[in-house]
Amino acid sequence: MKFSTRLLSLVAALAFVVTACSGDDAAETTAAQGRFDQSESVSTTAATTTTSAVGGAFTDTEGDETSAAPVETYLTPADLGRSIIYTATIEIEVDDVVAAGAAAQQAVAPLGGLLFGQETTTGPNSYSVLTLKVRPEDFQEALDRLSGIGTLVSQSVTADDVTERVVDLQSRITTAEASVERLRTFLSQATLLKDVAALEEELLQRETDLELLRGQLRTIETAVSLATITLILTEPTPEPAVGLIQTAYFGHDGGQSCPGSGEIVFDEGDLVTFCYELTNTGDTSLSDIDVRDGAVDAKAEDLIIVEGDLAGILAPDGRLILAFEAEAEPGAYPSPVVTATAIDTDGNPLRMSVDVETELGTLAVVRDTSLPGFTDALEASWHGLQRVGGVVIVAAGAVLPFLWVPVLLILAAIWVGRRKTSKQATPTSTDE
């Protein structure tokens, strides 16, 4: 009985020990599982955050993960851990460089852009050069905004990685600072005058070198911290030009039949009307238009205005038609000359020459070989008399200024003769 009781007690004790061990294992297993779950949860959250930062998707922990919206991100030089200098040169063609310069400053102002320099020249070839600086992260946005103020002509963008140079300068600066400190220590411990002088000279040189290195580093850091954009604004170059087409036709009708024909044959003495059609083929207005044709003795005041206003302004694509009435003469072929002044939109003269393109008609005059009649002979005699009279008048005009010379010679001769007569008479009176 006692054996059975002892055996039962031993079995109960073993069962209790087994149960306790099982409970501890379960507790450890549960705790370990809890730690694993917590670690896995933290790791999963970290991975999600990293993926969101790189991929551009941010997850709302309180909402559904499937509702995350992608957000576009850009890597900046700071994200790459590099020191990069961004520069750009952009040329834009605009209608007004002054207004465009103000628009460019307004475009980069919301980005914190600064104007570091501006050079503007107005005139026929107006241009403006602006130097702008923005943060590197706003560099591309600034270029996009500036490109929208006009027509992009050219663009050049460079990114210079100066990380190695920055690291080198920092290392050299650290070494130089340590060297300067050592020299200062030696100088504080020097007792001899010559040692003090030598150490001070060496210390001055090393401090100068140190400041140069620090200045180079500051320059690079400033260039890295602000991207530089050189904006070149230009206006379209004016190209003033005028085209002239010369034609002719039979008869006189005040130029109503202009323009005439480009190929025509006249007989000598036929009535002919020469037509001059001018067209502004350039991109600027023209004023002070003058047309002359010395070959047919046509001047601006002799021309008949058929269309347009010779004294007004000829706008681009504007037309002006002039006429000149004459008689056909052999060898008198039209050779017109056109001059004009190019003006801007405000009416101010442009210091530019006007290109003139002339198209002359093919004209021929058949000489009259018939025998002259009475009228022709009378007309020829009259023309001959006019020529002789003209020669006489010209000769008289040339001689008239010198008529006093012979008069003076005659008076001198009379005076000399009288003087001789007086001398001859004086001795005779004495003898008596």
Q: Care to give the gist of this entry?
A:
The protein is an alpha+beta fold. It contains 8 helices and 14 strands. A hairpin with a 5-residue loop joins strand 2 (114-121) and strand 3.
Question: What is the strand and helix layout of this fold?
Answer:
Blueprint: H1 2-55, H2 77-80, E1 84-93, H3 97-108, E2 114-121, E3 127-134, H4 139-147, E4 151-161, H5 163-189, H6 193-225, E5 227-234, E6 241-250, E7 263-267, E8 271-280, E9 285-292, E10 304-307, E11 319-327, E12 337-343, E13 355-359, E14 362-366, H7 374-399, H8 404-431
Parallel strand pairs: 1-5, 6-13, 7-14
Antiparallel strand pairs: 1-4, 2-3, 3-5, 6-8, 8-11, 9-12, 10-11
Helix pairs in contact: 5-6
What do you see in this structure?
There is one protein chain. This protein is an alpha+beta fold. The protein has three domains: 1-73, no CATH class; 82-237, no CATH class; 241-366, Immunoglobulin-like. The protein contains eight helices and 14 strands. The strands form four sheets. Strands 2-3-5-1-4 form a five-stranded mixed sheet. Helix 5 packs antiparallel against helix 6. The chain is elongated and about 130 Å long. It starts with a helix and ends with a helix. Residues 1-75 have low confidence and may be disordered.
